[in-house]
Amino acid sequence: MSAILPSGASLYDRVRHFVPPIEWPVFAEDIEAILDLKRQRNAVILAHNYQTPEIFHCVADIVGDSLALARKAMTVEADVIVLAGVHFMAETAKLLNPQKTVLIPDLRAGCSLADSITAEDIRVLRKRYPGVPVVTYVNTSAEVKAESDICCTSGNAKAVVESLGVPRVIMLPDEYLAQNIAAQTDVEIIAWKGHCEVHERFTPADIRELRESHPGVIVLAHPECPPDVVTEADFSGSTAAMSDYVERQKPPRVVLLTECSMSDNVALHHPELEFIRPCNLCPHMKRITLANIREALEQNRHVVTIAPGIAQRARRAVERMLAI
31 and 105, same structural domain? Predict the structure, then answer.
């Protein structure tokens, strides 16, 4: 079974370098069902860069990093949004589309950063640092966003921090992202102790080993990595920035220090380049599968809801970010 694109190219052609032919019939059955369900329900699928290739390239309508998904979620013309990502992303889509049905295929698709801080933690920080604005990474719950002044992503964090025109900000919850941004700005940044369980595991020793075993490799690191890793890398940026770097510079041999599927998805657009893959897997992202995307559309699960009072305040923090 093989779904056919309007151009006549099969969907399998998009992922043939990562999906063995023997596995494709299993994927294709779910893919065809999902494509049909999307038409029936006037639904779209938003997929993060960390989704596996068969999701990212075969059923997703909109793909990108957190910032891109947040921006594009505002323009979606559909009755139903399925978020192929983690829970805070589905909440953000709901914040920006309050009248639409937003589904998350697996409620267990969480985030170590989102779990590292609570709304009460922010209230305590505000008492400790009165008058200091709170910049909150989008990798947080709606309740945390609601207690914040403005949100940011890894791609626009520096711009958001400097847009406030103040000498000091609280930036949470990712300690390493905050430290990496602090190195780029004169604004004093008060950090929280949250870490991404994917990016915190990379070390400078990993990079040195990569350079020894793969001479000439260009190392791109996500800013959620520890600062000594970012310093050791050739370039640091969001997943969108890393993808743009590869597109622009076309390094013959490259490694992306981020989640595994990111390299797979970028590599599909650049078969002429050699991608080294010492990646770390995000267990939460990998809870999203073709099978449960199909079930989400068939059974209308799991519907994302946010209390109106929280939604109003959280939406304001996200919209302030998007206005920059």
Answer: yes
For residues 225 and 176, is the Cβ–Cβ distance under 8 A?
yes
- pLDDT tens digits for range 238-264: 999 999 999 999 999 999 999 999 999
- Residue 262 and residue 180: Cα distance in Å, rounded? 21
E strands, 110-159, are 134-137, 150-152
Question: pLDDT (tens digit, 9 = 90+) per residue, 30-60?
Answer: 999 999 999 999 999 999 999 999 999 999 9
| CATH of residue 83 | 3.40.50.10800
The pLDDT tens digits for 65-79 are: 887 887 888 888 899
Backbone angles phi, psi at 205, to 5 degrees: -60, -35
User: Residue 1 domain-assigned?
Assistant: no
Domain that holds residue 161: 114-196
Q: Which helix (H) or strand (E) holds 62?
A: strand 62-64
Q: What is the pTM of this model?
A: 0.91
Task: Return d(Cα 221, Cα 26) in angstroms, integer.
Answer: 34
Q: How many domains is the chain partitioned into structurally?
A: 3
Q: Are 49 and 86 in contact (CB under 8 A)?
A: no
